[in-house]
Every structure is written in structure tokens, then in C-alpha cells.
Write a structure and sequence with these properties.
globular; single chain; 213 residues; 9 helices; alpha+beta
Length: 213
């Protein structure tokens, strides 16, 4: 299997909602907590898992620090400057995963497929400092060329490294749901998601074949 850190994260849910967050994903070896936030998704009616992670990388963490420094009272600026590295680390660890409400319910039931997609989002976080030649704006171009953005492949490979073939099965299940929904959906962006999901599953399939050969 891919030589990637396979640390299992702990997924927990709060007794009550806290600042729009309903739970968190924590890493047992790091002082890291990534929050879970529900949202309404157009895919919910099809049972398609919809998630997205928002996180701070080096650039955004520095921007947050500089903004706070500019607003800091003069008498506290020296202390703020001394604590720069610690504050940057705190900012960088601030992240949350938006999850459609139906998938959140399944996640509470420890659904292994939904859990697999959580690790895909964590894969984005793990690779948040990696430099990519393409941005999300290039996604459509990549799909039209029959390929997946490198950042998405990296996140998939991370999920596979932790969840194994369960993640591959989750992608195929997602593909079946996309195909069924495509009978009534006409939105071009939906069709793009369908094709991308197929390409992602094929990429993991090739990794599995290579590992078993």
C-alpha cells in the first residue's frame, strides 16, 4: 500500500452545536482539531456524499497574523511579535470540514464509506503546503482532458492509504449514485462531477492492481 502516514483520526460529535460546529476530527498524535460543519447540499436527495474542507495554509495563516498585528494595541505589539511562530501554528491548525446533513447522520452511525470521504478531505489538509501547478479553476479543463487534478489524486491516495479498498468501494458506490441521478440531472457541473468521480475511482483501481501484481 502507498507509503503515506496512516494515522487514524478520531471522529467525535458534540452534545450540542457550538458556533455552527457539530463535531470534530482530532489527530491523536498532534494537537489538532478539525471541526465538522453541516450544510445543505443539492446532492443530498441522491444520497451522494458532499464534503469540502476549509483550512489555513502558510500564506493564509500569515495573512491572519498580519491582520491581527495591525489591530493590536501598541503596548502589546512586542509580545505579539515574540509569539509570532506560536500564533502562526495556531492559525494553521484552524480548519473545518463542511458535510451535507444526510452524510453527517451516516457519519454518526460510523458509516465506513462516509468516513472514507472524511479522509479524502483530510488528505487535502495533509497536503495543504504542497505547491500545485494547477488550481481548482483548472478542474473543468482537466476533466475534459480525461484526468483529475493532482491535488484531488493526492487526497484520494491519502484516503486509500488509511482506509484501503473501502475507499475504492466508496468511490464506486458514489459513481453508481451519480449515474442514477444523471437520468434526471441536466446541470453541466453535475455531469462534470460524475465524470471526475469515475476518473478518481479508476486511478485508485490502477493503484490496487499495481499493488497486487
Amino acid at each position: 500500500m502507498l507509503n503515506i502516514d496512516k494515522t487514524k483520526y478520531k471522529i467525535e460529535f458534540f452534545d450540542k452545536e457550538i458556533d455552527e460546529f457539530v463535531g470534530a476530527v482530532t489527530n491523536p498524535t498532534m494537537n489538532l482539531k478539525i471541526y465538522l460543519k453541516p450544510f445543505d447540499s443539492k446532492f443530498e436527495k441522491y444520497g451522494i456524499v458532499d464534503m469540502d474542507i476549509s483550512y489555513n495554509n502558510d500564506k493564509s495563516s500569515l495573512a491572519n497574523y498580519q491582520r491581527m498585528l495591525s489591530e493590536c494595541p501598541d503596548e502589546l505589539k512586542d509580545k505579539f511579535l515574540d509569539a509570532k511562530e506560536n500564533l502562526l501554528n495556531v492559525f494553521k491548525k484552524t480548519a473545518f470540514i463542511s458535510v451535507d446533513r444526510s452524510s453527517l447522520k451516516e457519519l454518526k452511525k460510523h458509516n465506513k464509506y462516509v468516513t472514507s470521504f472524511v479522509y479524502h478531505e483530510l488528505g487535502h489538509f495533509v497536503n495543504s503546503d504542497k505547491k500545485y501547478s494547477e488550481t481548482q479553476d483548472d478542474r473543468g479543463k482537466a476533466i475534459s482532458e480525461g484526468r483529475v487534478l493532482e491535488r484531488e489524486q493526492d487526497a484520494d491516495e491519502y484516503a486509500y492509504s488509511v482506509m484501503g479498498e473501502t475507499f475504492y468501494d466508496a468511490l464506486r458506490e458514489q459513481e453508481r449514485k451519480f449515474s442514477k441521478a444523471a437520468k434526471t440531472e441536466t446541470d453541466p457541473t453535475f455531469m462534470m462531477d460524475l465524470v471526475e468521480n469515475h476518473l478518481r475511482a479508476e486511478h485508485i483501481a490502477q493503484i490496487i492492481i499495481k499493488e497486487k501484481s
